[in-house]
Amino acid sequence: EVQLLESGGGLVQPGGSLRLSCAASGFTFSSYGMSWVRQAPGKGLEWVSTISGSGDNTFYADSVKGRFTISGDNSKNTLYLQMNSLSAEDTAVYYCAKSQQLFYAFDIWGQGTMVTVSS
Amino acid sequence: DIQMTQSPSTLSASVGDRVTMTCRASQSISSWLAWYQQKPGKAPKLLIYKASSLESGVPSRFSGSGSGTEFTLTISSLQPGDFATYYCQQYNSGWTFGQGTKVEIK
User: Fold this and answer.
1) How far apart are CA B16 and CA B11, in angstroms?
2) From chain B, which residues contact A within 8 Å (Cβ)?
């Protein structure tokens, strides 16, 4: 069964850092585009970042560019999101998602992990 | 950047109703549009990709149409499990979601 499982969320102070993980199973991780999408409490979906299967290409929303870094470990079938200089505006549920091709729809989603930025 | 605008924001309907919602792109995105369904506390679920292609396992009462800048999602006969929020997403240039249409019980 194709599955994504996020972890690493929690409470962090403004200005702090956090690393999210997304463990993939049931498919060859390196063959697909992988993304992070977030949803602030009571709000809509916001695309955050995408990485190609090879890891050679990365893309970021303007709101996180320079602060967040997406990466993948093909040997562990795991996607990461390193988040630095966090602010209250980054408080959200963070979902990882898989797409059939790099520039494509997201066909499989994880259950999400909550990140709360607060003092 | 491409902006996506959904209408209406909220739609009140009854079981059995035919429901249509719209998504407009700020510039042409060809057919590179997806629709997702999200229920409270759950992850989004892909319904439609490439504007009109039904994702495997999705009931045939869901259909999508459109190209260029205007798209629609139609539910032919609303079922109890269809009360949810629906999002469109363009993937022609990067990825952008619309703000969502909530389908609520009338």
Assistant:
1) 14
2) 1, 32, 34, 36, 38, 42-46, 49-50, 55, 87, 89, 91-92, 94-100
